[in-house]
Amino acid sequence: xxxxxxxxxxxxxxFEKTPDKKQSxxxxxxxxxxxxxxxxxxxxxxxxxxxxxxxxxxxxxxNTFQNxxxxxxxxxxxxFNPPQRGQVIVLKAPPAALALxxxxxxxxxxxxxxxxxxxxxxxxxxxxQVTIVNAANPNGEVLNExxxxxxxxxxxxxxxxxxxxxxxxxxxxxVMGDNRHNSSDSRLWGILPQANIIGDVAFRLFPxxxxxxxxGQNVSYQSSATSSIx
Length: 230
What we know:
- Helix content is 15%, strand content 26%.
- By secondary structure, the protein is of the alpha+beta class.
- It has one domain (29-217): Umud Fragment, subunit A.
- The strands form two sheets. Strands 1, 2, 3, 4, 9, 10, 11 and 12 form an eight-stranded antiparallel β-sheet that branches. Strands 7-6-5-8 form a four-stranded antiparallel β-sheet, with no helix packed on it.
- The longest helix is centred in the N-terminal third of the chain and has 25 residues, at 25-49.
């Protein structure tokens, strides 16, 4: 009896190398078009409905965000959760804001601001102090805003002695720039409709030494002088 009778038979396989096939120009073009179309199918819905990159242009959010910062804006979160006070958002400038900047009311201009007042709030502005009156605070609550930046080198500001009271209805928000004496915001052009909110700032990707998640909550306060407005 063969000692190897109960062993499983061995099967030897060999592979022959297939000769390389040179790709024709037609095939190359088809493959390139396929890759481009596939990329667009994946990327465009993400940019349209989920997240989109923005570059800060202006000084209204100094020193939280500086000119040239590269941001990723989350466009889907507000479909599930309402905007909250203190969040930094990107918004479509309403007609009144465009008119102040001498832009056509049909122009597509985006602003970056911080949410200060929510639906149902009464916002009281007294110079640089903001008080919120609502059901939870019927006697009013003065906001603690450590992110505020005021550039004293600009001299007297019309905002310094501003007194204003605005009551917000459903779907209305009050937004302001962190650079309080140098921002075109709800103090000038009024309430922001919820429909104009694009999304909240989820990431800062540039400058590299300031990469952060939810960067509006991680503020730094370094002195900076500028006179542009946006």
